[in-house]
């Protein structure tokens, strides 16, 4: 898998496919929906539950006598539901870093072969060739299992679409940390401060309310402190300078992708005129 991460020969196909995906999924609202922005959680891993569940169940039924009909229904359900799951995956893939896109390309290729095998399995079953349908189904399950293994590497080893900022919380020490003197804290301006000397947070004051948010963007660790504050859907949001993900400053909800994750807001209090924060 490390060799795949480093194999630049995959970039020729990957770069072309990325252009096709970005050119096809143009409306921002559609891309955000597929990233999982309305959920505050990536959509692709949730969507793959349906085809994977249906296909595994069909494989179990294929091993039992007299279960042709329900097995065919489940193969059909898995095949149809895999299409939107694949579209959501491609949308996420197009916003990944280059080494992640290489592995993602192999993940997508394995799943495309698996999906094709299942489409063949469905066609065979519907035309009465159940032996062939079962064989293609088992081959399809083996291939999508390989795809799932590669997808696991992409998520757990390479951190694709996982929240990149949350690990900051694990490094923060307990107790209240002083951040700024309220008397000198400007209104409606992004300020960057550090907690425990190396955990960056951003401060945004609106009247007497102050938001303290982790600075590292959940998408790919972009510096939110260098981003802009924009009004989106009636809420002040910080927009990441790297790929444009936007997070509400009064709650941390993601309102614009490619991040599919919300950003972490930290609790605050004011002690003797000094703004302080702590772990949630
Ligand atoms: S790092 Fe990609 S949107 Fe922030």
TrEMBL record:
Keywords: 2Fe-2S, Iron, Iron-sulfur, Membrane, Metal-binding, Transmembrane, Transmembrane helix. PROSITE patterns: RIESKE (PS51296). Belongs to the bacterial ring-hydroxylating dioxygenase ferredoxin component family. It comes from Micromonospora vinacea. The chain crosses the membrane at residues 71-91, 103-124, 136-156. InterPro entries: DUF2231_TM (IPR019251), Rieske_2Fe-2S (IPR017941), Rieske_2Fe-2S_sf (IPR036922). Residues 176-277 form the Rieske domain. CDD domains: Rieske (cd03467). This is Nitrite reductase/ring-hydroxylating ferredoxin subunit/uncharacterized membrane protein. SUPFAM superfamilies: ISP domain. Its cofactor is [2Fe-2S] cluster. Pfam families: DUF2231, Rieske.
